[in-house]
Amino acid sequence: NSPTFDGAKQAVRLTKTDNERFTIQAASSYTRPFEFWITFTTPPSWSGSAHTLVGLSGTHRIALAATTGNLLISGVATGQAMANDTQYTLRVVFNGASSSWTLNNGTVNSISLSSTDIGTPNFRVGSNFSNSEHYDGWIKYLFSSDAGLSAGDVTDMWTWSGN
User: Fold this and answer.
1) Which of 3, 55, 71, 160 could make a disulfide contact with 124, Cβ separation 3.0–4.6 Å?
2) Of 10, 62, 68, residue with least CA distance to 37
3) What is d(CA 23, CA 152) in angstroms, rounded to the nearest whole number?
């Protein structure tokens, strides 16, 4: 099923029970470092399997744990708990052992991830790469780059996203 636009939240609403997701394609495979930004609102409650925001590949994804809402990046637990029905902006730089994530323009947190490139560019939004673990919430903005952003660009992105 296709997600719908929620005018009140000015975001796309995806529901887990309807298996809603969409696919984004690009002209070539992504290499590291790969930067991904997403502004999303968390589910009203945590239930079922993990809630995957984006499935970039079979290895790399951004998800929230099923019953706790803890942030998972490529299967690695970050220890970051997410509140229900709350908007966040997340920046993840996928770069193997030198990866990082930042929430709402806060602390840049180091994280060691698989060194695998993202690969084929037909990534999923609202599910993992195998079209399961659907998201139950809202997604407002997406941005990706494997060209790398300058420090000024990063500042502009945080400003643009309202952080």
Assistant:
1) 55
2) 62
3) 30
pLDDT of 101: 98
Question: How crowded is the C-beta side of 33, counted as CA atoms within 13 Å?
Answer: 15
Task: Taking residues 49-69, report their average pLDDT.
Answer: 89
Q: CB burial class (10 A; 0-12, 13-18, 19+) of residue 70?
A: middle
CB 161 within 8 A of CB 39: yes
Q: How far apart are CA 140 and CA 55, in angstroms?
A: 17
How do residues 29-48 score in pLDDT, each as one tens digit? 777 888 999 999 999 888 77
Q: pTM of the entire structure?
A: 0.92
CA atoms within 13 A on the CB side of 20: 16
> Which amino acid is residue 37, in one-letter code?
W
